[in-house]
Amino acid sequence: MKTVLTALLFIVTFNLYSQNREHAFEVNKRLGRGINYGNMFEAPSETGWGNPWKPQYAKMIADLGFKHVRIPIRWEPANRSSATAPYTISATFLNRIKQVVDSALNNNLHAIINMHHHDALFANPDAQKERFLAHWRQISSFFKDYPDSLLFEILNEPHGNITPEKWNVFLAGALTEIRKDNPDRIVAIGTPDWGGLGGLPYLLLPDDENIILTIHYYNPFQFTHQGAEWVGNGTEANAWLGTKWNDTETEREIVQNEFSPLLKLGKTKNVPVHIGEFGAYSKADETSRKKWTTYMSRYFDSLGWSWAYWEFSAGFGIYNPSNGTWNKYLVDALLHNELPEPARYVGTPVYTSNFRTSNDGWNLYWQSTAASQLSRTDNSLKVSITKGGSEGWHVQLVKNNIQLKAGKKYRFSFKAKTDTERSLSAYIGKSSDPWTAYSGYNSATVTDTFKVYTFVFDQATNDNVARMVFDLGKSTEGFTVTEVKLEEVVLQWPTTAETIEDLKTTVFPNPATHFFTIHNLDGFKSYTLVNTQGMTVKSGILNNFSNFISFEEFTPGMYFVHLKGENSVHSAKILKR
Fold first, then answer.
1. Nearest to 557 by CA among 531, 529, 527, 528
2. Are 31 and 106 found together in one domain?
């Protein structure tokens, strides 16, 4: 009995201790803001992608104010490791990686090394498993005496034939090998299905004290990857050229909604979070890249997450090695810019669901490997799934005959819940071959509480018979949806109080130089313009709709517009340039 009690006490103590992760949180805080050595060592050779590593890079990065570098590494090539047992990694290559790691540590940077682009492993994981584990045994042994400023990341973006179930087995095996020589080293663990937020529900975190969770984020994908030559057939992303990020309230809310499951998991599992990759490709316009990068960086900072921008000196990069110049606007966005006030979208309804008396034209489709049922209750549609199939599109909830206009921007939103947390894909696209998703495929992690999910997209072509789609396959978890809306939206630049109070009235442009407009849609009777000292500098009577207010006579700075109605006064900030 004493032995049993001792064992039970050990298990309880171990479980409590294993959830503490004090050291992991401390190291993650030290990681802070970082950057990726992208297109260097994960290329088939160091010069294979035209972006070789240079010894001076670590000091340059540290001098800017970054705290760590992530070093993606492809270990598979024949000149780097053997393809047959015992799968020996070349001593020359190990020492080359040592040089890169030492360069970082010698410049007071932390370093993360990983496995990256292991194509043979993704294609045939079972056949490559021993090689995968053997590589981690060797890497772990080689770096076992390094300080905790060196971290390991088990595998970049597991995908292909590494299913979510298989990934949970493989990561546990690799962690076991690492712990033989590195019992306390911090190890970063990513999610299945390409390392993004969509893989969170399938990840089984090991009961290990010294781990952090790492996630990659490139949404909206049609913005961050516009013009990317490696996407799809090589030209698919060209159709996305010109996609902008306007830093609106809606766009920020989409980001926050997408990250809410990660925020929840980090708290409930008491695990630190590292954003291992995020970035916008250089073919996006400079203003949008600056806005997107500023928001992402400050948002991650506000949550206490460490992050590594993708990347230093290639297509997403902050540095141009050809001429030795910085993309200063990106450096500022990552390290210096404060978070500005957001812009906002104002919408005109195109479609609003009504499930009180019918399915409102929505239909449920499933493939032969799946089985599901559609029902209606409490102004909602409910999908019950008994067999989910092997792909998301194997179960689809669809609304056809949606009219879209070229050159317009749309906001699609829906309110949904599930019995148990699950991920799904929602999009608007072509209703016939090639089934193009005009909006991109928008992943959402839906929980057991009703919540609104939103995304925004630009429409390039006219389509009078487009379709709204929810891809619900690959899971047997049900899905309940209501308040489905599609709106055509227009952009209005920053105002303040009215967005909180849900007013229709807007004050624009903001900032303004010569004049500004009060677009009065709430019946306000008069306005006063007040400076930061509280003095009224201008006032007047308002008519309904547009009121043009001269701004030329005032010095640059911040002002407040007070709008007075019969029973209320509302205010908005406006900046004079």
1. 531
2. yes
Of 312, 340, 368, the one marking the end of a domain is 340
**In the chain, what is the straight-line distance between the N-terminal and C-terminal CA atoms, in Å?**
79
pTM of the model: 0.77
Closest CA to 534 of 569, 568, 558, 563: 558
Answer yes or no: is 7 within a domain.
no
Q: What number is the average pLDDT over the span 72-101?
A: 98
In the chain, the percentage of residues whose pLDDT exceeds 70 is 94
pLDDT at residue 82 greater than cutoff 60: yes
Per-residue tokens: 443: 């992943």
- Which range of residues forms the domain containing residue 519? 497-576
- Total number of domains in the chain: 3
Calpha distance 440→224 (Å, rounded): 12
514 in Cβ contact with 529 (< 8 Å): no
Mean of the per-residue pLDDT values for the chain? 92
- Does residue 319 sit in the same domain as residue 226? yes
Q: Which of 364, 362, 383, 374 is nearest to 484 (CA)?
A: 362
* Cβ(329)–Cβ(290) below 8 Å: yes
Mean pLDDT of all residues in 30-56: 98
- When pLDDT is averaged across residues 342-348 and rounded to a whole number, the result is 84
